[in-house]
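Weekly modeling sync, notes
Attendees: S.R. (lead), two postdocs, one rotation student

Agenda item 3: backlog of single-chain predictions. S.R. asked that every request posted to the team notebook include the full sequence so nobody has to chase files. The rotation student volunteered to paste the first one in as an example of the format we agreed on. Action items at the bottom.

Example entry:
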Amino acid sequence: MFKKKGEQIFAPAAGSVMALAEVPDPVFASGAVGEGFAVEPTEGSFVSPVDGELILVAKTLHAYAVRTDAGAEILVHIGMDTVKLKGEGFTAHRAKGEQVKQGDVIITCDLAQMAALVPSMVTPVLVTNGKDFVIAETQIGAANGTPVITVRKK
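Predicted structure, as returned to the notebook:
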């Protein structure tokens, strides 16, 4: 069922959607962590980009991942070097193991406060199990509320 249709991945925050190559970090920009896109957030509310199970909420609250029903694993990494903040300034609203819907708030922070502490708040959104999934469609510059990428099982 998912093989033909694919699963749509939405931006996890309000803001400008950009190509992964534009991320100001060479590891993310190269696709070494996974393929996907990034968002320059304009608000400090980070939501689930898909329906699925929350399989990771980092102890430092700078990242989370959701596995879709088809098995695609989508990682949201909030900002660059935010792991160094050790969770300070982030608030978790959901926990690992919970079922979430696209748009459910997972993490919040004071964006202005955080931006002053790290090199960038650009937020990569990555398909971390790309050996099993392929990005079938990309809509960089997508309007908020519309899917940015569609993934399909290989």
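Discussion: group reviewed the output briefly. The chain has three helices and 13 strands.
Action items: rotation student to repeat for the remaining queue; S.R. to check formatting next week.
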